[in-house]
Design brief:
metal-binding, 3-stranded antiparallel sheet, Creatine Amidinohydrolase, Chain A, domain 1, Creatinase_N, Pept_M24, Creatine Amidinohydrolase, Creatin/AminoP/Spt16_N, about 20% strand, single chain, hydrolase, elongated, 2 domains
């Protein structure tokens, strides 16, 4: 490709990101108008990234309900970066980004200002109130109203660009595991820590920005601990090996768990594995538009309960995944809401037998108007290495 051609592709990607971010801000604008707000002050950094494309460590965003001019606040360290990533917004460069945008809201006549109550601390809220009062200087002080998790509700429905990033993240994780298994790296004599570090390094070499979370490698009795942290335990023949890991690509996370057996698989291991596989298949089949998240959990959980292992499935069935490894919706017995097309979710039932071993099988999927799209493509047949 010629340099000019490469520059054209980069410019096209920037234009796509800018257009996607603008559409997301328009959706928040509509929510603000419905709630009688003049503007929304966004302080959660991942929400700022979602709405603008800005990836710096200090940022806030003021979204005007009437579309008369949104403002991105950051500090001098990010002037160049913000200008490149968010060329369509006016920048406010000030170390105190939230106070600076609050003062801008007052100057622009905002009467009702939405804020993210789940992100601001109590001290932060009191500070925001003081800034607004000082900036008003005798004029009416803007009324504050929580928008709660309005942006997170938007983020639950992924657009085409987000789904493409999730596909890439899942592909990196799939390839990393395939390479390790193919090269004999998952073998007796190695430690959990060695396997985990090699799996992380392989994902990085394949293009991941970082692992999605601290990779779980659990063998033998440790596999019965749902979130075991890898240690110096040595992999031994005849044991389960549970791998829960993911890759982050363009800010989006993948999440996958596979459980295999080293050497010969005992009958009890095959029985537990087949039970979890049946539960996971039932959970995947229940991912339909309009399904209640509690009912989706029940579809998978009932399979395990029916086999007498209900007490050994100790967590929810799954969760949303995207810019965060855990986001809406939560799929579990205490969940709330229904599934919608475009949601990216995990399905990850498990059976954990303390002192013996455990099995978890997990995929990342996209809810669609038809069958869910499976993003983690590594086989779920019991692999015996």
């Amino acid at each position: 490709m010629t340099p000019a051609g490469a520059e054209g592709r980069v410019a096209s990607r920037v234009e796509e990101r800018v257009a996607s971010a603008a559409a997301r801000r328009d959706a928040l604008r509509a929510t603000a108008a419905e709630r009688g707000l003049d503007a929304v002050l966004v302080t959660h950094l991942l929400n700022v990234r979602y709405l603008t494309g800005f990836t710096g460590s200090n940022g806030a965003l003021l979204v005007r309900a009437d579309g008369s001019g949104d403002l991105l606040g950051t500090d001098g360290r990010y002037t160049t970066q913000a200008g490149a990533q968010v060329p369509d917004l006016e920048l406010v460069i000030d170390r105190g980004t939230v106070p600076a945008l609050a003062r801008a809201a007052v100057r622009r006549g905002v009467a009702r200002l939405g804020y993210e109550s789940h992100d601001l601390t109590v001290d932060g809220l009191h500070g925001l109130e003081r800034v607004l009062a000082d900036a008003a200087a005798g004029r009416p002080v803007p009324e504050l109203a929580s928008v709660r998790r309005a942006v997170e509700a938007q983020r639950a429905i992924k657009d085409d660009g987000e789904i493409a990033a999730l596909r890439r993240a899942c592909a990196v994780a799939d390839q990393a595991l395939a390479e390790l298994a193919g090269e004999g790296a998952l073998r007796p004599g190695r430690t959990e820590l060695e396997v985990g570090r090699e799996l992380d390094a392989r994902m990085l070499r394949l293009g991941a920005e970082a692992p999605s979370f601290e990779t779980i490698v659990a063998t033998g009795a440790n596999s019965a601990i749902p979130h075991h942290r890898p240690d110096s335990t040595v992999l031994c023949e005849g044991n389960f090996l549970k791998l829960d890991f993911g890759a982050t690509v363009d800010g989006y996370h993948s999440d996958m768990t596979r459980t295999l057996v080293l050497g010969h698989a005992a009958d009890w291991q095959r029985e537990v594995y087949e039970l979890v596989a049946a539960s996971q298949a039932a959970g995947r089949a229940a991912l339909v538009v309009g399904a209640d998240v509690v009912a989706v959990d029940s579809a998978a959980r009932d399979v395990i309960v029916g086999a007498g292992h209900g007490d050994h499935f100790t967590h929810g069935l799954g969760h949303g995944v995207g810019l965060e490894i855990h986001e809406a919706p939560g799929i579990g017995q205490l969940g709330a809401g229904t599934l919608a097309a475009g949601m990216a979710v995990t399905v990850e039932p498990g059976v954990y037998l303390p002192g013996h071993g455990g099995v978890r099988i997990e995929d990342t999927l996209i809810v669609t108007d038809d069958a869910p799209e499976l993003l983690t493509l590594t086989s779920k047949e019991l692999l015996v290495l």
